[in-house]
Amino acid sequence: MPTSVELRKQRAGVVESMRAITEKAESENRGLSGEERTSYDRHEQDFTGLTERIERQEAEEERAAQMAEPIRRSGQRPDDGGRGTEETRAKEKRAAFFQALRRGARLAPEQRALVENTAGEILVPEDLEQEIYRALPGLTVVRGIASSRPTSSNRIRRRSLNEVSVGWGSLETNEQTLADSMPSTPTEEFTYIEDLYGLAKIGEDELDDSDTNLEAFVRDSFARAVGEAEDTAFTIGTGHASNQPVGFMTTGGGVPVVTAATGNTTVKVDQFKNLVYAVPAQYRRNARFAVASGTELALSLLRDNSSGAGTGPYLWQPSVQAGRPNTFLGYAIENQEDIAAVAASAKVAAFGDFNAGYRIYDRAGMTVKVLDQLYAEEGMIGWKIRMRVGGDVVRPEALRILQLSAT
């Protein structure tokens, strides 16, 4: 009789087959053919059947484990709701994961079954994966200001919506006057989850350290390996056709552009004031600027010259508290180095409520491939990290982009 782990691997293979069918049809911009539909339905039945078998097998394995467990005077008790078993299983997976990082293909079969997927990749334990995700906002810009959601799908269907309408009235007498927020002909759109790869290397001698030190290294190196790449993609990524998220500074993001008047090829106060007031008032409350460091430097030299003396106060204000950004015109400034520098026709700044306007989708299941032979001559072991993430502009009206004049 197959174990629950083996059944899960079978189910994962079924899911991959279903995904291949739908992705082929999507890439050809068509629906499923009759043969594909029959195959997809058969796989769906297999998935349902395997899910039921997994649930039964896991229940059997749980009962067998409980029957085999000796009675103890302390520690786990029969009425702990199974928490002890879950904690033990999580510890075993975590230990197997670090053994996999150290030993690669030489991992014992029973440990490999705990952490390896059907593609031969090592699954990062869920609790460690969450720790890596929590570290990312401190290393990147966009994750700290945009919204994010977990997902279990390869793509997220979106429909274009107007803002939600509300109205006054009595609930009991059904006197409310509400307008439908869905357009009469909604546009179907998708945000795709893309594969992001990173490479981390560690010296063989360092692997002799304790698991605690290795765990800290994994959290830091994995987060840094993917952080910079995803931040660039969230800003200037060109979309699914390039296997990237959609950046908010790109045409695909659909953010309206405020173009400076002719002759404005450098940074000026009036341009940024126009940018601010181009954003609807409800989104200005939580708005901020995103510019390159060189652009912020130019902003920091601008003064309020309303008196005409040329010696007015600076409009840029330095932060007086660690961890808080500098401000300009009363709004926070974030530095994103992938935004263009000041030049004619350049899109030099974005402004608005990024939390409302841009969304990041994280798909669980970060994996690692151990490259224990590729860098052997260097005395190093490589880890190829795969992280699945998507990003897209969900409310273009919450943001605006400033483009300088061509001449």
UniProtKB/TrEMBL annotation:
- Compositional bias (Basic and acidic residues) at which positions? 21-57, 70-91
Q: Where is this region: Disordered?
A: 1-91
State the source organism's domain of life: Bacteria
User: Which compartment or compartments is the protein found in?
Assistant: Virion
InterPro entries, from UniProt? Phage_capsid, Phage_capsid-like_C
Q: Where is the Phage capsid-like C-terminal domain?
A: 120-403
Q: What is this protein called?
A: Phage major capsid protein
Q: What organism is listed for this UniProt entry?
A: Streptomyces meridianus
